[in-house]
Write a structure and sequence with these properties.
Layout: H1 2-13, H2 39-48, H3 54-66, H4 70-82, H5 86-98, H6 106-118, H7 122-133, H8 141-153, H9 159-169, H10 177-189, H11 193-204, H12 213-225, H13 229-241, H14 249-261, H15 265-279, H16 282-296, H17 306-317, H18 322-336
Helix pairs in contact: 1-2, 1-4, 2-4, 3-4, 4-5, 5-6, 6-7, 7-8, 8-9, 9-10, 10-11, 11-12, 12-13, 13-14, 13-15, 14-15, 15-16, 15-17, 16-17, 16-18
């Protein structure tokens, strides 16, 4: 086993990955000289002890990875990859991408991902799509469409978000807003909060040709009920204005409060507004107004919320002293960790 480990260490250090292939990338045969076993070799030998199948080798790699023993993980994963285990190929790619157990090397990472993607491994497809979306290492948005479509077919429902965005923007191919909306709605039906939010946005826009306020409000509600911060804000807007749903200002206030707690800047602004103008609680209003500034991280001079904040600042200044306002702001910064 020790001579095998020595060979695998050389393989793990420098896999030749020029082509997509049905098996793991191959090296020229390496004749490793017998040498005293290193600690890594001992660890790898122990990890692979009794591992007779590619899945067992991959399991050993995962165990070593979980213990932050990345060199052993790479050796075990390379053994599994040599037997065609696509998940092991993806793990090796990820370790090269992050520089875990060696020098960071995105070229090697991409080639390992390609080998795994050839076998339909969904995590590898998503990793390649991420590079393609940024148009890095020769990959294009057209490649991103392909990788995301394949990942979606392999069960990665989150691929629908980026794929829909490509169709909406006409990147990597012709625009297709209807296909984008179908992707989002399908993902939303499977419980995707972000997909529901995005579907609601598409359906609420007047210039898309897809406007349907009732359906938009329904998707915002689904997103909000599944914990989406901005979804809670937009569902609050729908309730407050009675767009797509019967107007219900108390319910709108409740959703603004939930959005604020979840960290949505717009939700925090409107929660502060409702607290001041409806509840008359200017102290809490001042608190959430400051939280909105913290979460946005923009100067009021360039913020879209500057007009609302200016009105609230005036209302708060008429009710609280300067010292009280500073104390509330200090509390907001402490709670936000800012």
């Amino acid at each position: 086993m020790k001579s095998l480990i020595a060979s695998l260490m050389l393989l793990a250090a420098a896999p030749a990955l020029a082509q997509e292939s049905e098996s793991a990338p191959e090296e020229d045969a390496v004749q490793a000289e017998e040498a005293p076993a290193t600690e890594t070799e001992d660890n790898a030998a122990d990890a692979l002890e009794g591992a007779s199948t590619p899945q067992e080798m991959f399991d050993a790699a995962q165990t070593a990875y979980a213990m932050n023993d990345f060199q052993t993980a790479q050796i075990a994963a390379t053994a599994a990859a040599a037997e065609g285990n696509a998940q092991a190929m993806t793990l090796i790619g990820y370790m090269h991408e992050r520089g875990l157990g060696g020098v960071r090397d995105e070229v090697k990472a991409i080639n390992w991902y390609r080998a795994a993607a050839k076998k339909g491994e969904p995590d590898a497809l998503m990793a390649l799509a991420a590079y393609a979306l940024e148009e890095e290492h020769g990959l294009t948005t057209a490649d991103a469409r392909s990788y995301l479509d394949r990942a979606l077919g392999a069960g990665r429902s989150e691929a629908a978000i980026d794929l829909a965005s490509l169709y909406m923007q006409g990147l990597g191919g012709p625009p297709d807003r209807q296909k984008a909306l179908l992707l989002l709605e399908t993902a939303a039906e499977e419980g995707g909060a972000d997909a529901a939010y995005r579907a609601g946005v598409v359906l609420s826009e007047e210039d898309t040709g897809e406007q349907d306020d009732a359906r938009a409000a329904d998707y915002f509600k689904r997103a909000a009920e599944n914990g989406h911060p901005a979804g809670a804000t937009l569902y609050g807007h729908a309730l407050y204005e009675g767009v797509g749903v019967p107007a219900d200002k108390p319910a709108a206030a409740e959703w603004y409060a939930k959005a604020a707690e979840r960290g949505d800047t717009e939700g925090q602004v409107y929660h502060a507004l409702m607290l001041a103008l409806v509840d008359g609680d200017v102290e809490k209003s001042a608190y959430w107004l400051e939280r909105s500034r913290i979460s946005e991280g923009e100067d009021d001079a360039v913020s879209a919320y500057a007009p609302i904040r200016a009105k609230l600042d005036n209302a708060i200044a008429g009710k609280l002293t300067g010292e009280e306002i500073e104390a509330v702001r200090a509390d907001a910064h402490d709670d936000a960790g800012a």
